[in-house]
Amino acid sequence: MFGAGGGTSSYQEIEETDLIVLWGSNARETHPIFFHHVLKGVHNGARLYTVDPRRTTSAQWADLWLGIDVGTDIALSNTIAREIIHAGLADMDFIERATTGFAEYAESVEEWTLERGARETGVPADAIRELAHAYGRADRAEICWTLGITEHHNAVDNVFCLINLALLTGHVGKYGSGVNPLRGQNNVQGGGDMGAIPNKLPGFQDIERDDAARARFEEAWGATIQPRYGWHLTQMFEAMERGDLTALYVVGENPADSEADTQHALELLTGLDHLVVQDILMTRTAELADVVFPASASWCESEGTVTNSERRVQRVRKALDPPGEARDDIQIMCQLARRLGRPEFAYASSEEAWDELRSLSPMHRGMSYRRLEELGGIQWPCESEDDPGALFLHGRLWEEPVRGPRAPFMVVEHDLPVDELDDDFPIRLTTGRRLDSYNTGVQSGGYASPLRRPETLDLSPEDCERLGVVEGERVQISSRRGSVVAPVHIDPNLRPGLAFMTLHFPDQVATNVLTIDATDPKSGTAEFKAAAIRVEKLRLPASELAPGHETIPAA
Amino acid sequence: MDLRIHGAEATEEERAAVDGMLGPPLTGWVGGARAEEGERTSHGGHDAREQRHLLLPTLHAVQERIGWISPGALNYVCLRLTIPPAEAYGVASFYALFALEPRAPTVVHVCNDIGCTCRGAGELMRELEKRVGPPGEHPDNGRAIWLESPCLGLCERAPAVMVAHSGEDAYEHVIAPAGADAVLEALGGAAAPPAPPPDLPQPDQSGLRLLRRLGQVDPGSLSSYRAHGGYEALRRAIEMGPQAVVAEVTESGLQGRGGAAFPTGRKWDAVARHPVRPHYLVCNADESEPGTFKDRIVMEYDPFALIEAMTIAGFATGSELGYLYLRGEYPLAHRRLGDAIEQARVHGFLGEDVMGHGIRFDIELRKGAGAYICGEETALFNSIEGYRGEPRNKPPFPVDQGLFRQPTVVNNVESLLNVLDIVDEGGAAYAQIGTEQSTGTRLFCMSGCVERPGLIEAPFGIRLGELLEMAGGVADGRPLKAILLGGAAGVFVGPDALDLELSFEATRAVGATLGSGVVMVFDDTVDLVPVLLRIAGFFRDESCGQCVPCRVGTVRQQEALLRLAANRPRGSVADELALLGEITEAMRDASICGLGQTAANAIDSALRVFSPFPAAEVS
């Protein structure tokens, strides 16, 4: 936030804070390692609040769960903000010193009375008030979020609405207080750090606006970098649709399974002139490719670094030789570059590539391999070899006067999900992950798990009764984009009108046939979290209902 | 605490039993009726987890009403208390009195422990097997069974049985002494026999202090207790103020009567001064040491005395809540203490404003469920808190971090009873009684082959032989073979020990112990080998399994004894004895708590004093 894309706090602070808000995150299942730090915090006395349409296993740990309607996060945040302001709990000193845009923000939330907030979000007013006061009064407080916030058509606004709350109460830039997007893989953070995003060079240096940085890279690389943002994933698909993008090099992604509105995505991928896929496994996308580069598994067959959710860069060491013809990602890319006529792509080691990065990214400059090893990883920014790294970000906001730019409040408007509920599609489907599986199953499907069960449409007992369906009965699920058939699972932790599916088993149930590809214009994330569906009983003979023996083939 | 609750659901009756203890569920998320539109909030977290201490009482409620704890009932309990089912199962299965499989509604627990076998338990069980069938069989269309049980704490009236009937008309009572006819009637649902008067065998009862009201006072009447001088001590304590009470208790030299003999005044002082609040008082009434029944008799016949003593302790140490943890096999004491607490509340001797002096103190009566280890103070805390009754490492000691990790004073029943007289007459006067290092009187549980079994109170310093005389000597005038001093965790002594002075210091000097005041007598007809096997079996059963030396050691000890008893030693008898010696040493040195540290005491002493397996008998 405020420039660099990373959580502001350290795990240690999560353990020593007073209040944790998990907003749009079922971290118990989807970020189990991070949740251990949450549990330590809880054990140390921290109060835990969860905001989630579902009463998840994380919510069951919480002191208070707020079961909002899907996609009403901004309404809830604005209501909380108004309550904090009216209760005199806003940190006016901090706001005046370190932020901009408060007056406009305060005016924008003024209409969000508790009553209106309750009406829009479905959460009782006293629960909203309780969270507002607890957050406003806490000495230390952390907000953590994941895809419940970002897999929406207004993802960036959703993030802004949470950051607003932190600015309002001064819960950022000091020990034990911060705002933290949780990363879903060991190196999601590192991908962004290394510039694998369309608008930044490594180290979050802006391609368009930071001329000096661009010049440094151009000099080092002996090449011209166009001062123009690239496309993010959704824009790439749009470009494919327009015919502007005809060749695609996919590294470690499986868009054929993971994109919303699968049918459409497959059509576009198969319509490309040339598709190259680099992956550790033969994914559905790889099956479509003209060329497949088998890659080594980065956690055990490669040398390098990863960066976790607390911005800690850590060394990864090679333990095994990759099987068959698989090669290290760096080798594959360097060889490709050399064939394309750039012989200087020749690093003797991963450390050499890393040292080049250090020479170009100020926030990594102090992180030599030696220091990474000695210190057990270093949290960026770390600008020199005597810099211990940063436990938390934005401490500057508490300096008098503030060093650097002040943090802006962003006025954000409540905007319901694109896929509206109506009589034809009356049930809100939200998607997510389970503890035992990961995304489309590329990395987790090969392992057996005692917890794993097949894909199901999870429904409340009330909806099942209304539909006259029993546990395990196969039903037809339709959205405005398509239909799938899946067995029903009765989940007493769902309320009526809310359904849940995962994306883990695309071979069994192509959940993304149902989801909508409405995307956030700024981040390019699709609204996986909100589809409108209809569930219909299949007219099948009794013998074919509730088979009950469907299992996932264990590898 | 992930609640992975699936499968079995509670029946209406099971839910009623749980709701009876916890109140109706507040939301659909925790088992209540679901709102039509769905509920959008739920409270839980710290508040919910603070209910954990209700787990044991709730399991009792289910056991009492249903007769066993089904997976469905357990799931519902877990949902209500936000406890993972695996953990709750771990707790439920920890206790012997809980059934986790369907069981007949009427169960007669027949004591087969050493005290009762001296007095006919073996014959009783053989008779039952003949007329009813083996233990656990359902003779009467599955409505009633009998089971073997470790010591029920009724050794003065051996052989003893406890009857537990579950259902809407649940009841528990004991029959002692019990004949086969009486057990058969109990299996058929016969009512409880009237409670007999307390067995106080000593001929001269003029010097009784702790026992002076027993048999005189009506245990069901606060008025009667007050007519016998009750609540004078509390009044006196309030006049003196808490610091003076602690000072008097310290000056009295009172030492804990539970077995460890720690100075009570030092405990009280440490808790009273502790800056961390709240403080808790815990009365350890989990009297489970085989051969011990002293606390039970006093609680049954003078329950208000313990209530008053606890109130004084709470007042002196700044504790506003006292937990009275009673062993599960004491139904009469449970009823009488429950009644006494209720009467004391009604009359303002407990509650927000004790005796109108603005003192806040109340007592929660908690019932154990058949686990000897819960007599260990830190295991007892875990049991109250709703965890498996496994001991904790010390330090931290209870005075710093005891119940709920708060400063806690934990005292045995008998220790607390002494406080009444100390407050009345002053610590200095109290210290005149007994010996220099063991002040006051001691309760001795006379059982086994003794003419008049029962409870004797005598000043410290009395000789073992004198004590035996007060109980009428060995039964039928037979020669004395051995005396077990201090219980199953104590030691055996021979006839040459009758001169032994019974004080902490004198017993310690000869490597003996007073333990819980057990004096169990064996005459020349008793074969000690089965007695030792029973003790070894007891410790094997009761080891909580948490630490290796005890978990493995108690098993190995029993196995070695079984081989010796069968005259099939591995190697020579000397080899086996050497092995037992090593096991003894390992358990003493390395066990976490007193159970493992003392589990070899009685056997070790018997091997040394009586040589029941002469090495010459090598096969």
Written account of the structure:
The complex is a heterodimer of chains A (555) and B (619). By secondary structure, chain A is α/β, with parallel strands linked by helices. Chain A is built from 20 helices and 21 strands. In chain A, the strands form 6 sheets. A 6-stranded mixed beta sheet of chain A has the order 17-19-18-21-16-20. Chain A has a 5-stranded parallel beta sheet with strand order 3-2-1-5-6. Chain A has a 3-stranded parallel beta sheet with strand order 9-10-11. In chain A, helix 4 (73-86) runs antiparallel to helix 7 and helix 7 packs across helix 8. The radius of gyration of chain A is 24 Å and the shape is globular. The two termini of chain A are 41 Å apart. The model of chain B has no long low-confidence stretch (mean pLDDT 95). Chain B has 25 helices and 15 strands. In chain B, helix 1 (12-22) runs parallel beside helix 4, helix 11 (242-252) runs antiparallel to helix 12 (264-273) and helix 14 crosses helix 17. Classes of the chains: A alpha/beta (555), B alpha/beta (619). The interface between A and B is medium-sized, with 30 and 18 residues.
Please state the average pLDDT score of chain B.
95
Poorly predicted segments of chain A: 542-555
* Oligomeric state of the chains present here: heterodimer
User: Cα-atom Rg of chain A, whole angstroms?
Assistant: 24 Å
Q: Rounded to an integer, what's the Rg of chain B over CA atoms? A: 24 Å
Low-confidence stretches of chain B: none
Helix content of chain A: 25-40%
Main sheet makeup of chain B:
5 strands, mixed
On the 0-100 scale, what is the average pLDDT of chain A?
91
Structural class, from helix and strand content of chain A? alpha/beta
Number of strands of chain A: 21
Output the number of helix runs of chain B: 25
